[in-house]
Amino acid sequence: MTWVTLKAAICVRTSVTLCNNLLGGNERRLCMEEEIRKNAIFRYKVDGESPKDIYTSLKRSKKWFFKWLKRFQSGDAHWYEDQSRAPLLNTRETEPREKELIIATRQHLESEPLAQIGVSAIKWELKKLGLPFPSDSTINRILKREGLVKKNFLCCQGD
């Protein structure tokens, strides 16, 4: 056994002990899962054990084993940790430039006397300028968030 493999074996064994002693509850379970991953790859790389023997003894799937082997081979220092499943970008979010354009159009319409200031008027103005415009509900949501929606009181409000 080489120095590197001996060091890896000691590291795996030590971190299992740390997991058991320092953590509790969900943290311990996550830590133990990480140790199982490290141990599986250690057994494959250092001990030369076959993948099938490893994943059957750990009661894991073939897919599970090769997923973690691929992550290990990627060279990432924290390959054994779970990765976030959240999307990197929120594609449904309206771009800031588009928001500013809608707000500026609304403020321009408000400055003109007797001009309509609703969604259809905003869309009309954007269309006249040859600019793309989002749906009515998106425009309404932006206006509401910016506090530009005003209640229209046509009837008397109590005496």
Can you give a write-up of this model?
By secondary structure, the protein is an all-alpha fold. It has 2 domains: 3-73, no CATH class; 96-145. It contains 7 helices and no strands. The protein has helices at 3-22, 26-45, 51-57, 62-73, 96-111, 119-128, 136-145. Helix 3 packs across helix 4 (62-73) and helix 5 crosses helix 6 (119-128). The chain is rod-shaped. The termini are far apart. The model is unreliable at 1-12 (pLDDT under 50).
Keywords:
rod-shaped; 159 residues; mainly alpha; disordered N terminus; 2 domains
Give a summary of the structure in a few sentences.
This protein has helices spanning 3-22, 26-45, 51-57, 62-73, 96-111, 119-128, 136-145. The chain is mainly α and 159 residues long.
How many DSSP-defined strands? 0
Number of domain units: 2
Output the number of helix runs: 7
Q: Kindly name the structural category.
A: mainly alpha
Query: What is the end-to-end distance?
Result: 93 Å
Helix content: 55-70%
- State Rg: 30 Å
| Residue share in β-strands | under 5%
Low-confidence stretches: 1-12
Largest sheet report = none
Shape: rod-shaped
Order of helices and strands: HHHHHHH
Report the mean per-residue pLDDT as an integer: 82
